[in-house]
Amino acid sequence: MPRVFFSGLLDCLALGTAGPRRGNRLSGLLLALLLGTGCSPQRGDPARAAAPLGTGHFEGSVRLKEGSAASFKLVLELRHPRAGHYEAEVLAPTRPGLSFVADSVDFQAPTLRLTRPGQPSQRLALTREGDFWRGTLTLDSAQAPVLLLRRGTPAPATYRVSRLREPALGAGPLLFAPADETMAGPALALLPAPQHAALALRWADALARAGVIVLLLPPPADTAADLLAAQAALRQLRATPGADTARLGVWATAGRAASLAAGLPGAGPPQPNFLVLQQLANSRALRPSLRQLPAARSVLGLYDEEAPGSRRASAALRAALPQRQGHRVRVVPAAAAGAAVADWLSPAGD
């Protein structure tokens, strides 16, 4: 779950009021008041002994280029779902590719720093000024000033991001899980090739907002490890709350897609219930492997409409796949691939 770092008197109050009985809570509160900021690393600095992070729905507009008339709306949702935990979500309704849920909330009063999971070059740095947050939005090499005003209570969370520590899944895998775990839904392991690593974060965001659990695995040093990583991811997803164990799949791109298409037919369990192959080259050479896929497994082939040769490659994949209900091959904008997979996985897309 996201972590929160902040200092000041309220930390002491939280520690002092943690006792299970009312008398203990009162004595702890009095003790905290007497000791002041004794438990804070910023001892003796009144400016750091500020109020806690707080919650709210904040809105403002951003103009990336100075002097440009084009601007877009930016929304910040700050939530406090339970004691000791805060959540932050950044939304750009007209530019969904910029939206993200932070996997950690770094608050050193009065400064809040949010970084997009897996993409440290995209971040939001803000300073609190009453009901305002003022600061800077950084998008790779571009920066823009931001002023966000509190407009009410935060909207309910759509999904949450957590960073897993599982050696079999590689370095820094990210789990995108819908906030509502009461209804079981599809889940997939996403294995992007290096050239799709940044886009994969957008795809994971789109899928999670559609109710799909996504386990994003970083590109490995050697695609030979992809099959083992995919199977380890399927085991992890099977144990993830809210995952429909009858709808577990794998989405791989480029060289990783070819590696899985060649290796899955002869591999043991676990096997995915569906497979998404994106920018798969040499479909004709992989035809024997594709023909060995179990009849119950659906395949979605995706190609970037702007990539050279995509129309020809998509036709080759259609010819290589067995003529079976459930298989689809589509040519879409790369940025819209997440939405295309979500549509395919929805009941209406079956």
Describe what this molecule looks like in 3D:
The chain has 350 residues and is of the alpha/beta class. It has three domains: 1-46, no CATH class; 56-152, Lipocalin; 159-349, Alpha/Beta hydrolase fold, catalytic domain (Rossmann fold, 3-Layer(aba) Sandwich), CATH 3.40.50. It is 24% helix and 34% strand. The protein has eight helices and 18 strands. It has helices at residues 9-16, 22-35, 197-209, 226-238, 254-263, 287-291, 310-320, 337-345, and strands at 4-5, 56-62, 72-82, 85-91, 100-101, 105-108, 111-116, 119-129, 132-139, 142-152, 159-163, 174-178, 185-191, 213-216, 243-253, 274-278, 298-304, 328-332. Strands 1-6-7-8-9-10-2-3-4-5 form a ten-stranded mixed β-sheet. Strands 11-12-14-13-15-16-17-18 form an eight-stranded mixed β-sheet, sandwiched between helices. The chain is elongated and about 65 Å long. Mean pLDDT is 83; it is low at 1-50.
Shape from CA axes? elongated
Structural class: alpha/beta
CATH class type of the largest domain? Alpha Beta
CATH architecture classification name of the largest domain: 3-Layer(aba) Sandwich
Helix content bin: 10-25%
SSE sequence, one letter per element: EHHEEEEEEEEEEEEHEHEHEHEHEH
Oligomer category = single chain
> Looking at this structure, what is the CATH superfamily of the largest domain?
Alpha/Beta hydrolase fold, catalytic domain
> Radius of gyration from the CA trace?
23 Å
What is the topology?
Layout: E1 4-5, H1 9-16, H2 22-35, E2 56-62, E3 72-82, E4 85-91, E5 100-101, E6 105-108, E7 111-116, E8 119-129, E9 132-139, E10 142-152, E11 159-163, E12 174-178, E13 185-191, H3 197-209, E14 213-216, H4 226-238, E15 243-253, H5 254-263, E16 274-278, H6 287-291, E17 298-304, H7 310-320, E18 328-332, H8 337-345
